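Why do we bother with holo predictions? Because pocket geometry can differ from the apo form. Keep that in mind while you read this record for NAP.
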Amino acid sequence: MLAVRFDRFGPPDVLDIGVTPEPHPGPGQIRIRVKAAGVSPVDLALRAGASPAGRNLALPHIPGVDAAGVVDEVGPDAAAHEGDEVFGVVPLAGLGGATAEFAILDFWTRKPGRLPWTEAGGAGTGVETATRALDLLELGEGMTVLVHGAAGGVGSIVVQLAAARGARVLGAARAESHPFLESLGIRPVILGQVDEPVDRALDVAGAGSLDDLIKITGSPDNVVTLADFEGPSKGVRLSMGRLAGQPDGRHGLAVAAALAEQGLFRVPVREVFPPRNAAAAHALAARSPRWGKVVIDVVY
Ligand SMILES: NC(=O)c1ccc[n+]([C@@H]2O[C@H](COP(=O)([O-])OP(=O)(O)OC[C@H]3O[C@@H](n4cnc5c(N)ncnc54)[C@H](OP(=O)(O)O)[C@@H]3O)[C@@H](O)[C@H]2O)c1
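The structure, written out:
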């Protein structure tokens, strides 16, 4: 099969299209013919050789942890049928595999007709991560939550899922990103200017702002971070999911799909690139201001 891949670490232009063996699903997994795949920070870090998780990465490596497509092979005990239209997440232990003609999914849900392929392709890990973080925060109806890093790939998903839980959502981001957050129905704020009671805070930016978030919410118990490894030393929970032995948020995929079906959830897509322009996709994903997900439309 054809795949976007890299055989050495480096800048975006180490990505090329090559021929690589087709994968086959193991127990509980499915294989999809990929329609679209998201670009995530982990893909950029692995490609650059900057991720400790990538130390033992087998090269060539196919980036991409989120994908949407049509089921064409069903592994033993997997609840899916050939022809199902789905979106989901690749086996995370492999750290990639989505930007190819065929990809394995570890968990998935049916793609609603109303959710375009490009949006579904960028949804998987963002929805799983957002759900996990909101569960940890025990975010409920009527609470106010502040999301720092609200306009990025995960942030733009988490703010919508938080609002769907009945929370009042404040999205902290640079002023340039405020119209984008307003387009999602979210009240934008500048972190240093929050002057109202906030029950919970989620740090998606990993920008060294945990002390501010603790002060705003009154306690480290009210804060969760997805991106700041200093969190635990300040009493703030660092959510890493299944790979760290924590509960995951995969149940959120069906919730997001149901919301999308009702027109209450979308995956903001910043730009869509063909596989031959994967290097440009990685370069854009690294540039601020980030508004939603960069997606690769997997048609070779
Ligand atoms: N723990 C987990 O399980 C998990 C899962 C997925 C992702 N993550 C991590 O979560 C983070 C966000 O992921 P993502 O996909 O949303 O990334 P993304 O699309 O690149 O977005 C990053 C967001 O953080 C903001 N940001 C970055 N540095 C900032 C700073 N110094 N001050 C203020 N805002 C800043 C960005 O704002 P601008 O664009 O305006 O700079 C952007 O809104 C990444 O670090 C990623 O590795 C963790």
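The CA atoms of residues 142 and 222 lie 15 Å apart.
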